[in-house]
């Protein structure tokens, strides 16, 4: 554990001296500043590929002063230097935006609020201020400081800001739009014994770090200890009190302290080592020696920590959390800590059960606490996010102390085990979590149906049955091309786009474009544009502010829909008249699709609960009737597998909601018109298509129509390792019959050229029966592609017919929910589909008769609903000379007719 584990070579970023590190909120970049007046920008997805731009001084020219502080968002960088200037830069363009604030002395620390509305500035001149990011002229002073301010940080919900003075005092302020008022102060006596740091020496500045759930903040002491204070005002007995500490590792004051993205681990460094703490166990899990570490940053997606040294180098410490701990499954998703210690906690109460020495040395305090007095997780969200127990508050109020926590000889703390019968009941189910969420990016990205990323300066914006829209990137603009599959109605056309549209919807009547708030557009205003094909007279546009920019759009034959990053859903007619607006803000909207008067919205719960996870792979959906202003389904799970990613969201040709995931599974929603009755049904597993022929390929979804899956086949040698995208120009589309994946035995032995699949569906049922009988007589002659199978030909036939039967039945259910058909047309389509279902049953009846399986045949006959198919089943039994079975079928038929009469 003494040698650093650097998978990447060190980056020589700055001259020797102070270096500060920050990662951007979108997890794309690592930003550093230091003594060479250069701002370094490293791409996290390209093994720290660097770029740099020069820092500016108070007069806007290149500064010759070291840059001592930095704050970053996804699109902005703010720096503070020795000359007292605070300069804002655009991260995408690497250009200076403005000088947003000036101090009379050196700027010591900067911080953006998590909502990106405020920039906090602190300096040696006793001043601290909150500067509006959008209007730097609007600044609020944080008053009351008695000594120079060295550190500043925001609470995760942006409601409070915390400052640390040179004497060690902590001041917390409540933030409102017009004022920042003092909330409370923790005096220096409660913080540190002595803070030996001069105005000139900034190597040791008490960097206070707030836990990601907002429940506490960690404070480094100059004696090397790390103290956690409760920040949850709802925990009255614990509020502002010390709740736990990490000791006996650092010999002097830690230079930097940072929480892991989900708060499960803590990284700290002094001038000789980097220490990784397991917060739940309150123990050190890793120590690595470096020469002069001074600034830390967790990688937002991987198990590694970036370490800046005094020689100006940036090291990548991989495997920060040992592999064993990284893979295990802790029982709670949030910080679980003991109650505040009292002066008498070293005394053991009489009657308590004790532990042996091995149990004490393992320091199981938090593990025991999670199941005893400090049951943290209640039924409501407020209880789930509070990490401190209130079970023993009455006891603490009466006695002024809590004797459950005992200090052993080596300074650690443990909880004596109690008898099980004395344990209070839990207030609710503790949520489970995956510790790899600590380093894992959000699995479900924002899904734009049919769109692809930029490849060779080209990309698709949308792709459906109508056609596709694609972009060609130029130096100052994009060329938009709209291509149609049916060239008889519309011809391909182009236009020049100077706005940077990255969203699109396409129908036979029009195209709908949007500029989203994601990627390089973060922080910018966004807009939408509606264009009718062949005419500009009915075109219209709308704009949205940067704080509620466009995230997704959808277009149907009757409506245009815009979703924003704050969850607002705005619905227009095709002439640009807004007719509905509502908000679904609990979880961010990641995709939407529209069909006639219906809207299908998918949202991700992972963003709101990155640690706790969720059912259905972290996705929920809603279905809205736009015209009737009705919610048909709300916040139900999208049932894709936990490890897959959502790739596409669309409606079928008859209006059935469908999703397609990275596992190649196509699902459709049935019974969605009935509250609480909707079910996701897998109707195709594309892995069976490629596996049958031994090919390596993926399938880019186009849609579902006429009972077939239409797609673009993507072939390549390494497709199993990544998601690939269709090339431009578009390849020829392919289609596959829907097949319910009932069984997975030997998919490569499926009959590609099955006669049953090639049978024409004759209207005359007697012809169909003859085909069934012929299939049964010729079944032993069918091809198996030359491969030996453990399954007999009849077994393979039965498997195929069962899949066809279930598939046709699902198609019948979706047809009954169809929103594309009405009146007599709908009734005829349903009757026709019902006949298709019963034909598949008759095929299974024929196989059952061949096997003389009477019970199976009778159960199949009972699924028939039409008299003509019941009669056909009787004839099939007679053809196999099963007279008794035919009589039994006739009895069932006559019984039904009697019931009808």
From TrEMBL:
Residues 447-742 form the WDHD1/CFT4 second beta-propeller domain. The keyword Hydrolase does not apply. This is Uncharacterized protein. The keyword Nucleus applies. Keywords: Nucleus, Repeat, WD repeat. One of its GO terms (biological process) is DNA repair. Residues 800-898 form the WDHD1/CFT4 helical bundle domain. Residues 379-389 have a biased composition (Basic and acidic residues). PROSITE patterns: WD_REPEATS_2, WD_REPEATS_REGION. WD repeats lie at residues 142-183. Residues 390-410 have a biased composition (Acidic residues). It is found in: Nucleus. Residues 328-433, 771-796 are annotated as: Disordered. GO terms for cellular component: nuclear replication fork. InterPro entries: WD40/YVTN_repeat-like_dom_sf (IPR015943), WD40_repeat_dom_sf (IPR036322), WD40_rpt (IPR001680), WD40_WDHD1_1st (IPR057646), WDHD1/CFT4_beta-prop_2nd (IPR022100), WDHD1/CFT4_hel (IPR048591). Residues 11-313 form the WDHD1 first WD40 domain. One of its GO terms (molecular function) is chromatin binding.
């Amino acid at each position: 554990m003494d040698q650093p584990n650097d998978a990447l070579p060190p980056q020589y970023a700055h001259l020797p001296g102070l270096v500060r590190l920050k990662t951007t909120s979108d997890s794309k970049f690592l930003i550093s500043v230091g003594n060479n007046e250069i701002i370094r920008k490293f791409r996290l997805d390209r093994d720290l590929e660097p770029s740099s731009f020069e820092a500016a001084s108070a007069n806007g020219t290149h500064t010759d002063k070291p840059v001592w502080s930095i704050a970053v968002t996804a699109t902005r960088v703010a720096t503070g230097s020795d000359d007292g200037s605070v300069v804002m830069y655009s991260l995408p363009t690497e250009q200076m935006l403005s000088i947003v604030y000036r101090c009379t002395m050196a700027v010591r620390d900067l911080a953006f609020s998590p909502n990106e509305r405020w920039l906090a500035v602190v300096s040696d001149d006793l001043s601290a201020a909150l500067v509006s990011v959008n209007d730097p002229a609007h600044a609020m002073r944080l008053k009351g400081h008695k000594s120079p301010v060295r550190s500043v940080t925001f609470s995760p919900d942006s409601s409070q800001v915390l400052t640390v003075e040179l004497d060690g005092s902590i001041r917390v302020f409540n933030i409102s739009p017009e004022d920042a008022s003092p909330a409370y102060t923790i005096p220096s006596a409660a913080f540190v014994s002595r803070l030996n740091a001069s105005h000139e020496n900034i190597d040791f500045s008490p960097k206070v770090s707030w836990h990601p759930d907002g429940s506490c903040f960690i404070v480094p002491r100059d004696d090397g200890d790390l103290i956690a204070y409760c920040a949850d005002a709802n925990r009255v007995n614990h509020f502002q009190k010390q709740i736990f500490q990490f000791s006996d590792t650092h010999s002097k004051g830690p230079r930097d302290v940072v929480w892991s993205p989900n708060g499960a681990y803590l990284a700290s460094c002094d001038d000789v080592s980097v220490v990784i703490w397991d917060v739940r166990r309150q123990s050190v899990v890793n120590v690595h020696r470096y020469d002069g570490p001074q600034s830390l940053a967790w990688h937002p997606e991987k198990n590694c920590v970036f370490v800046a040294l005094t020689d100006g180098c940036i090291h990548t410490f991989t495997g920060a959390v040992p592999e064993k701990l990284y893979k295990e499954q802790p029982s709670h998703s949030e910080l679980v800590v003991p109650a505040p210690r009292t002066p008498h906690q070293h005394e053991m109460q009489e009657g308590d059960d004790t532990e042996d020495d091995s149990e004490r040395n393992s320091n199981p305090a938090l593990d025991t606490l999670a199941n005893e007095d400090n049951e943290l997780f209640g039924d409501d969200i407020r209880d789930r996010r509070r990490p401190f127990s209130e079970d023993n508050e009455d006891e603490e109020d009466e006695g002024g102390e809590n004797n459950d926590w005992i200090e052993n000889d080596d300074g650690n703390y443990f909880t004596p085990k109690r008898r099980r019968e004395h344990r209070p009941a839990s207030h609710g189910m503790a949520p489970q979590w995956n510790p790899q969420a600590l380093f894992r990016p959000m699995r479900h990205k924002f899904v734009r149906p049919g769109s692809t990323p930029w490849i060779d300066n080209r990309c698709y914006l949308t792709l459906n049955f109508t056609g596709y829209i694609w972009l060609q990137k130029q130096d100052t603009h994009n060329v938009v091309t709209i291509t149609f599959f049916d060239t008889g109605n519309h011809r391909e056309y182009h236009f020049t786009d100077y706005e940077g549209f990255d969203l699109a919807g396409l129908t036979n009547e029009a195209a709908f474009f949007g500029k989203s708030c994601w990627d390089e557009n973060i922080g910018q205003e966004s807009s939408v544009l509606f264009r009718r094909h062949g005419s500009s007279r009915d075109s219209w546009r709308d704009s949205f502010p940067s704080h509620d920019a466009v995230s997704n759009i959808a277009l149907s034959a009757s409506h245009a829909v815009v979703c924003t990053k704050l969850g607002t859903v705005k619905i227009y007619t095709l002439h640009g008249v807004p007719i509905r607006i509502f908000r679904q803000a609990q979880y961010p909207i990641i995709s939407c699709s529209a069909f006639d008067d219906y809207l299908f919205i998918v949202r991700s719960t992972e963003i709101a609960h990155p640690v706790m996870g969720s059912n259905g792979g972290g996705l929920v959906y809603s279905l809205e009737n736009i015209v009737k202003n009705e919610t048909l389904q709300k916040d139900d799970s999208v049932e894709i597998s936990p490890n897959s990613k959502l790739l596409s969201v669309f409606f079928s040709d008859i209006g059935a909601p469908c999703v397609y995931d990275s596992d190649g599974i196509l699902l459709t929603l049935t019974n969605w018109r009935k509250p609480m009755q909707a079910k996701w049904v897998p109707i195709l597993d594309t892995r069976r298509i490629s596996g049958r022929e031994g090919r390596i390929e993926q399938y880019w979804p186009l849609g579902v129509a006429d009972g077939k899956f239409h797609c673009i086949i993507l072939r390549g040698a390494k497709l199993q390792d990544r998601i690939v995208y269709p090339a431009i120009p578009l390849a020829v589309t392919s289609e596959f019959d829907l097949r319910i994946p009932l069984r997975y035995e030997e998919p490569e032995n499926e009959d590609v050229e099955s006669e049953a699949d090639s049978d024409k569906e004759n209207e005359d049922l007697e012809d169909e029966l003859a085909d069934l009988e012929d299939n049964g007589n010729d079944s032993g002659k069918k091809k198996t592609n030359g491969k030996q199978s453990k399954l007999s030909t009849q077994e393979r036939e039965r498997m195929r017919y069962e899949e066809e039967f279930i598939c046709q039945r699902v198609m019948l259910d979706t047809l009954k929910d169809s929103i594309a058909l009405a009146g007599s047309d709908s009734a005829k389509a349903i009757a026709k589909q019902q006949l298709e279902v019963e034909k598949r049953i008759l095929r299974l009846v024929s196989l059952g008769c061949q096997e003389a399986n009477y019970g199976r045949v009778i159960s199949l006959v009972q699924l028939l609903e039409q008299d003509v198919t019941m009669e056909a089943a009787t004839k099939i039994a007679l053809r196999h000379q099963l007279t008794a079975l035919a009589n039994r079928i006739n009895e069932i038929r006559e019984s039904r007719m009697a019931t009808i009469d």
